[in-house]
Design a protein that fits this description.
8 strands; about 30% strand; alpha+beta; about 140 residues; globular; eight-stranded antiparallel beta barrel
């Protein structure tokens, strides 16, 4: 019973966090040639953000011309670029986040891990042991 209560609590917090609709202007979705084939996923561009690796606390969305929309900043804006090794560098808030795709799982949506962070101002990272993950939002986003 306790496990069921925890699952319900997790589902409720996930739906609250990911259900928040963007208030910033729409941006056309990134095109396949911008993201690369590995990140294309049939045109889906919104990823759920799991800062602690287990609980959804926001989302990021790859837009055309390197525009990033995200629920994790007040202005819902950032930028992204594709790295040389197939990773994506997503910049928002005070940090650059290096996103690396994880091997495909048979029973779940595509996922990434934030493999590295770098502060935009060059200062030291204070939270080094956080395993942030992302999971493709497969509910029909653009």
């Amino acid at each position: 019973q306790q496990q069921q209560q925890q699952q319900k609590k997790h589902q409720a917090s996930s739906s609250r966090s990911s259900a928040r609709q963007p208030s910033s202007p729409e941006v056309p979705p990134a095109e396949e040639h911008e993201l690369g084939e590995a990140w294309h996923f049939g045109g889906l561009r919104r990823w759920l953000w799991l800062h602690d690796g287990s609980r959804v606390n926001g989302w990021v969305e790859f837009g055309r011309d390197g525009v990033l929309r995200t629920s994790l900043t007040r202005d819902e804006r950032g930028s992204w670029k594709r790295g040389d090794d197939g990773e994506i560098v997503a910049t928002f808030g005070k940090c650059h986040h290096v996103l690396e795709l994880l091997p495909a799982a048979e029973d779940g949506p595509p996922s990434f891990v934030v493999s590295r962070r770098a502060m935009r101002d060059g200062s030291a990272i204070t939270k080094k042991n956080v395993r942030t993950l992302g999971r493709l939002d497969t509910r029909g986003n653009s």
